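Write out this protein's structure.
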Amino acid sequence: MSAVIISEIRKVSSTRLWWILLLCMAVGVAFMTGTFAFTLAFADQLGGADAQAAPADPLATARTIYGLPVSFGYVFPVILGALMVTSEFRHRTIDTTLLLEPSRLKVIAAKTLAVVPFAVVYAVTAMVVGVGVGAGLLALAGDPTMLDATGVQRSIAMGALALVVWAIVGVGFGCAITNQVIVIVALLCWTQLVEPILRVAFAFVEPLQGVAKFLPGAAGDAMVGGSFYTATGGGDLLAPWAGMAVLLGYAVVAALIGWLVTFRRDIS
């Protein structure tokens, strides 16, 4: 099993895609976090004399800002995880992989474990960039950064863990949808358009208000304990560990579908 995991790690590390995607994530997180953190930190100054008061709870404000790398940056590790599988089908190297390791379930498990070290790098980078930008803007606005608060430190750590779990979810979706173009387009559409709309829309439909918290993006935000969407009326969140369980559930279901539908049939 260790040989298969090492092989999967080498497949990723020998290409430029993983670190190019990492750089894109760092830039994207810095921009999105900076934009929304600036809006929250300088709400009074931007709105003039008639502006509404900023949130009274500095802890909630800090957790919302430090959770932005998860709310907006999770698309990068999830795509990385999906590419762990779909790139093999695109370049037809999956045939060689399965010839060297006939156990297809073991191949899926190896890809899931191999993505973790890369996901950790992505998670640490996203949180360092996001927290650095957010804390800097809070300090510039004269607001407390709350970095010494236990609750905030826990949220930052859980945010990093959420991004790692998102990479595992990506592997699952890559197993379920092996066409690289389709899975990337589907993930981008879902994470950047469909789910944000659904989370806001469900908040205004009373029978569906409880459904929004079980969507994958909301489950990831639940691990942080705060979200830009909930701060702007996008519904409530699950408890942190419940959110993690829901997010892992998506990964397991997607990987199971991939194993049953794709990996158990003749691939060559």
